[in-house]
Amino acid sequence: MLARGPPRRCSGAGVRWRRQEAPSAMPRVPAVGLGSGGQGGATGVVKLVAARPAATVVAAAAGERRAAGPPAAAVDGAQLANGSAVAGISKLVTSTVGKSTNILWHDCPIGQNERQNLLNQKGCVVWITGLSGSGKSTLACALSHELHSRGHLTYVLDGDNLRHGLNRDLSFKAEDRAENIRRVGEVAKLFADAGLICIASLISPYRSERSTCRSLLPNSSFIEVFLNAPLEVCEARDPKGLYKLARAGKIKGFTGIDDPYEPPSDCEIVIQCKIGDCPSPKSMADQVVSYLEANGFLED
User: Fold this and answer.
1) From the candidates 204, 220, 280, 283, which is the catalytic residue?
2) Phi, psi (degrees; rounded to nearest 5) at 290
3) Which of 103, 162, 201, 246 could be bridged to 38 by S-S, CB 3.0 to 4.6 A?
4) 3-state DSSP assignment of residue 293
5) What average pLDDT does this structure show over 111-131?
């Protein structure tokens, strides 16, 4: 018989492992394990007892809680989608989120506070919005460089760069543009939870979509930066030649030409750029750094 080590503890709150010896005269019965998809088939005789409220599950590492949707009934067994239960798992509450079923949130003892203490900074999202050609990517790189030189860990999520990988399956149709923003908001949230200063640089033309991304983060850690550059300035720059293509009718739904841009109404930082008078990348970055310092995101 193989030697058996001591049981391992799960880090989730209210979850404990306990060993149950099978009678020697009875055959061993595989117990149900939990994998990333919420179902599993690992063998063994370990019982998982998860004591969580039946109505809610932990929904974010930042400590917020969300309704679990139709919760599974609290029974002496794991509740499956067909209503049946699996023997050997007690009071396990799974949930359905979107198209994912039978999923369970797991907490870890190392959270955002511990990661922030390690990095000596506070995780946040600096969301830079503005017309194409307003200087969003330039500001994002200048800000990242300035913070890096001060010993702070950052990561830039650039709209065009993300369409080379994460969002390569999305077009520029309205529904895909909305999904593009949603994905970036969720990724930015993860970076902030990791304790990084995440710098997102996207046109993100609609207030409602930016507000949705803001709502993902707690404690005012979503910092919206509006690069307020007039259309005339952006069109004169036209670094990628997109305005010319839009004016010629070769690009449809281009923001600022035949699709609207909704300026922020309550953003944290406005960087003004006028015709013949636009601030340098360094001065723009310094303006954002000053805000981060004044609001405690850059700790000594």
Assistant:
1) 204
2) -60, -40
3) 103
4) helix
5) 96
